[in-house]
């Protein structure tokens, strides 16, 4: 799929998201030259059956938390680059995570494809490839890395691109999480091949955060989709309130990653979540 016709008016001019998308297009073209689709499809992991996100998010024995491994971000700089993805994700799983999110963007988030591969080796939970998906090639990459879920960000995709990429993912057996930030993105991007809709409480243009975005949109997300609140969650009470409002899942990364031991931090968070 060509990415040259991505609807740039969906992204406010000059912000970090513009820079990320431009860099990502370069990286995709370089990856295509380095590794052909046929090679990706021969990966041992390409033929594995994906975990079903809904089964894990709604499992009463788990927390609904999608716990994220993230070394750095454009807004915060280095968050935690001292720990291995194996150590962190195993700690998350032990603390009751329903799924794991792993950043694979190298240029802006310090991630790498190998992080996802390492997480897959040591976990039996759904894995989200957290990246800026613009091309079907990346979705095939994700399957070859052992991902179960791909992220589609409405702010950088046209409705036609969302439909095409979601269809590609479903054809491969992957789960699809659509990320939106406002009502306009939500309304234009909904399609049948989605499994979950996430409300990003962080504005990707200026990185300001407000959980109010989740409350504003929850009633507008059709009930057939899992409802996920993403970013800006640092208090167990917030999860209780979001769950009461209708959310099924909660993506948390920075709150755990900024601690010396993210797995232990999540364990303590979960303990507080179920007190009282």
Topology (elements, then pairings):
Layout: H1 16-34, H2 37-41, H3 53-57, E1 65-69, E2 72-73, E3 77-78, H4 85-94, E4 99-103, H5 113-122, E5 127-130, H6 136-145, E6 149-153, H7 159-171, E7 175-180, H8 183-189, E8 196-200, H9 212-217, E9 226-230, H10 236-245, E10 249-252, H11 254-257, H12 262-273
Parallel strand pairs: 1-4, 1-10, 4-5, 5-6, 6-7, 7-8, 8-9, 9-10
Antiparallel strand pairs: 2-3
Average pLDDT score: 93
CATH superfamily: Aldolase class I
User: Termini separation (Å)?
Assistant: 51 Å
Quantity of strands, as a count: 10
Order of helices and strands: HHHEEEHEHEHEHEHEHEHEHH
Q: What number of structural domains do the residues give?
A: 1
Give the number of helices: 12
Bulk shape: globular
Largest sheet: 8 strands, parallel, barrel
Largest sheet, spatial ordering of strands:
1-4-5-6-7-8-9-10
- Taken as a percent bin, the fraction of beta residues is 15-25%
Uncertain segments are 1-13
- Write the CATH architecture name: Alpha-Beta Barrel
CATH class identity: Alpha Beta
Radius of gyration: 17 Å
Write the CATH fold name: TIM Barrel
Helix and strand content put the structural class at alpha/beta
> In percent, how helical is the residue content?
40-55%
């Amino acid at each position: 799929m060509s990415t040259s016709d991505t609807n740039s008016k969906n992204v406010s001019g000059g912000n970090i998201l513009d820079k990320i998308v431009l860099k990502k297009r370069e990286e995709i073209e370089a990856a295509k030259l380095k590794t052909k689709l046929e090679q990706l499809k021969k990966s041992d992991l390409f033929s594995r059956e994906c975990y079903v996100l809904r089964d894990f998010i709604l499992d009463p024995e788990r927390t609904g938390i999608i716990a994220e491994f993230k070394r750095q971000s454009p807004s915060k700089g280095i968050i935690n680059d001292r720990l291995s993805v194996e150590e962190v994700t195993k700690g998350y799983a032990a603390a009751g995570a329903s799924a794991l999110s792993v950043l694979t963007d190298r240029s802006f988030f310090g991630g790498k494809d190998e992080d996802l591969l390492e997480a897959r080796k040591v976990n039996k939970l759904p894995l989200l490839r957290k990246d800026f998906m613009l091309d079907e090639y990346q979705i095939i990459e994700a399957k070859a890395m052992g991902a179960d879920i791909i992220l589609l960000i409405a702010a950088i995709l046209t409705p036609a691109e969302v439909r095409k990429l979601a269809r590609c993912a479903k054809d491969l057996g992957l789960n699809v999480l659509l990320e939106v930030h406002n009502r306009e993105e939500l309304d234009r991007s909904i399609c049948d091949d989605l499994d979950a809709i996430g409300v990003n409480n962080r504005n990707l243009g200026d990185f300001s955060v407000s959980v109010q975005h989740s409350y504003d949109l929850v009633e507008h997300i059709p009930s057939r989709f899992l409802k996920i609140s993403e970013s800006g969650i640092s208090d167990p009470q917030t999860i209780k309130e979001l769950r009461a409002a209708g959310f099924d899942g909660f993506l948390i990364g920075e709150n755990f990653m900024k601690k010396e031991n993210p797995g232990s931090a999540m364990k303590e968070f979960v303990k507080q979540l179920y007190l009282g």
